[in-house]
Design goal:
Elements (H helix, E strand, L loop, with lengths): L2 H7 L20 E4 L2 E3 L2 H11 L6 E5 L5 H10 L4 E6 L2 H14 L4 E5 L13 E6 L8 H4 L2 E11 L2 E7 L5 E8 L7
Parallel strand pairs: 3-4, 3-6, 4-5, 6-7
Antiparallel strand pairs: 1-2, 7-8, 8-9
Helix pairs in contact: 1-3
Length: 185
């Protein structure tokens, strides 16, 4: 399955508050509560393409919010894979977790982040990590959770980075345009 197919299979409207659902097709960020947003579809698609998710991958979704990106990732990895969404806001984590549960993708879940921990090292390593919050520097804690050959996509100081860990753990970083996100906390 490719990114376009996943975007059609997982409607953004299912992951928005009722007041925002009629705006689901707009290509802009929409509020989901707690000062957070659902990123614009074009940005989400670009990030997923950079991530290059394949069937069977183990994926971490940091800043999962409403669960939309977690569900998209679950669509891409299929039942042979596994996706964990992490969200710092307890209210959003509960709502996002319920949204994921409704999809019936048993190979995915969304839970509240552990205070003081970035990502979920105990559940790693991960083939792919998507971070939907802007870091002020490359988050080493997430890099450490990559499996050999793993890919991390993260906005850092306004620029989208793709970080690839080779089989020895050496990193290759490339830049992919300017983006704005809520801050990584």
């Amino acid at each position: 399955m490719d990114v376009d197919q996943a975007m059609r299979a997982v409607p953004r409207a299912d992951f928005l508050r009722p007041a925002e659902r009629e705006r689901a097709d707009e290509d802009g960020p929409l509020p989901i509560g707690e000062g957070q947003t659902s990123s614009q579809p074009r940005t989400v698609a670009a990030m997923l393409r950079l991530l290059d998710v394949r069937a069977g991958h183990r994926v971490l979704d940091v800043g999962a919010g409403s669960g939309w990106t977690t569900a998209l990732l679950a669509q891409l990895v299929g039942p042979a894979g596994w996706v964990l969404g992490i969200e710092l806001s307890p209210a959003l984590a509960a709502w996002g977790g319920a949204n994921i549960a409704r999809r019936g993708q048993e190979w995915s879940r969304l839970r509240e982040a552990t205070p003081g921990e970035l990502g979920s090292p105990a559940d790693g390593p991960y083939d792919r990590i998507l971070c939907s919050a802007e870091a002020d520097r490359l988050p080493g804690q997430l890099v450490e959770q990559l499996a050999p050959g793993g890919v991390l996509v993260v906005p850092v100081v306004g620029e989208m980075l793709r970080v690839v860990a080779d089989q020895t753990g050496a990193l290759t970083t490339s830049c992919h345009g300017a983006y704005r996100f809520v801050p990584l906390r």
